[in-house]
Write a structure and sequence with these properties.
This protein has helices spanning about 20-30, 60-70, 95-115, 150-160; strands at about 10-15, 35, 45, 75-85, 120-125, 175. It is α/β, with parallel strands linked by helices.
Length: about 190
């Protein structure tokens, strides 16, 4: 997917993983420039751990998003990169499910607080890669697509959320999970 970011400044915060690395490459390829923490970005990407784990420190990333949102200009974007488990909890990961749901709720609060100036959305990543870069291999038996996603399949929706032409989507989680959250996840 190609979008025109016209030298928009992008800042990454939170968990560093292969998805964020691919996101950096894709955003730069579409005209964005990656900046450091000292400047106010046009795009803020807030990444959380995508493989289930017990203890996630939400507050530093959410606080960073809140402070950056206050300084951002009109037309800016914030995108949280979450696990699809944020919208469809997995019984085998109660703590992780709770933490992801809390991150999703924080994203929606930011969308309410900072709209219409800043659009705030989330990308819900399901099973990705082999070995898993996101999700849990047990998800595969409930993915109608019958396979894990590729990074390109995750990055294209991220670009949509960052696209200046996407000017009305806010407070939403776009699940890129091969259909897992369509109801199959309840068996976990």
């Amino acid at each position: 997917m190609k979008i025109d970011l016209n030298d928009r400044a992008v800042l990454f915060t939170g968990a560093d993983n292969r998805v964020t690395a691919s996101a950096k490459q894709a955003l730069v390829a579409n005209g964005a420039s990656v900046i450091d923490d000292a400047a106010v970005p046009d795009l803020l990407i807030v990444s959380f751990p995508l493989v289930p784990c017990a203890d996630i420190q939400l507050e530093p990333s959410v606080s960073k998003a809140r402070s950056v949102a206050q300084a951002m200009g009109t037309g800016s974007r914030i995108v949280f990169i979450l696990s699809a488990i944020a919208a469809m909890p997995m019984r085998r990961y109660p703590e992780y499910s709770t933490q992801m749901a809390a991150a999703m709720a924080a994203m929606r609060v930011l969308a309410m607080e900072h709209g219409p100036k800043v659009l705030v959305n989330a990308l819900g990543v399901g099973l990705l890669g082999e070995p898993e870069e996101a999700g849990d291999a047990a998800m595969l038996s409930h993915v109608p697509q019958g396979r894990a996603a590729t990074r390109d399949e995750v990055i294209a929706p991220l670009l949509f959320l960052c696209d200046p032409l996407n000017s009305y989507t806010t407070g939403q989680i776009l699940s890129v999970d091969g259909g897992w959250s369509a109801g199959y996840g309840r068996n976990f």
